[in-house]
């Protein structure tokens, strides 16, 4: 299992756990729903890549890119690093890890 497969799974777990924590701390149902949805999509995308399905990379990249955009907007509005900054950094690292094997060829 290479880093390009581990990255979306790890980022998915981060999104999933973050959504649950957001709900527990702030009773934010939107955090719970978006965290579970995006987290599961990223985990599924990683599993699809593991099974050799090329579109798993596309799914993971689209979800990660959307999360980055959402959290950049959130960071600009709130000026609070947590959780937006962490999710931005995680998303950029995940995208880099997903595409590094393609660029390194």
**Runs with pLDDT <50, length 5+?**
none
What integer value in Å does the Rg equal? 14 Å
- Figure out the total of helices: 4
* Mass-distribution shape: globular
Number of strands: 0
- Average pLDDT score: 95
Helix content: over 70%
Largest sheet: none
Q: Could you tell me the strand content as a percent range?
A: under 5%
State the secondary-structure class: mainly alpha
Order of helices and strands: HHHH
Tell me the number of structural domains. 1
* Separation of the first and last Cα atoms: 17 Å
What does this structure look like?
By secondary structure, this protein is mainly α. The chain is globular, with a radius of gyration of 14 Å. Helix 1 packs parallel to helix 3 and helix 3 (55-78) runs antiparallel to helix 4 (84-103). The protein is 86% helix and 0% strand. The chain has one domain. The protein is built from four helices and no strands.
Topology overview:
Layout: H1 3-26, H2 29-50, H3 55-78, H4 84-103
How would you summarize what this structure contains?
The chain has 105 residues and is an all-alpha fold. The protein has four helices and no strands.
Feature tags:
single chain, 105 residues, mainly alpha, 4 helices
């Amino acid at each position: 299992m290479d880093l390009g497969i581990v990255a979306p799974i790890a980022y998915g777990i981060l999104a999933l756990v973050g959504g649950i924590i957001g709900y527990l701390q702030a009773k934010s149902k939107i955090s719970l729903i978006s965290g579970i949805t995006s987290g599961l999509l990223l985990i599924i995308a990683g599993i699809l890549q593991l099974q050799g399905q090329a579109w798993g990379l596309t799914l993971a990249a689209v979800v990660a890119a959307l999360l980055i955009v959402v959290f950049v907007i959130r960071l600009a509005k709130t000026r609070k690093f947590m959780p937006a900054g962490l999710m931005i950094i995680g998303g950029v690292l995940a995208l880099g890890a997903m595409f590094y094997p393609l660029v390194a060829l």
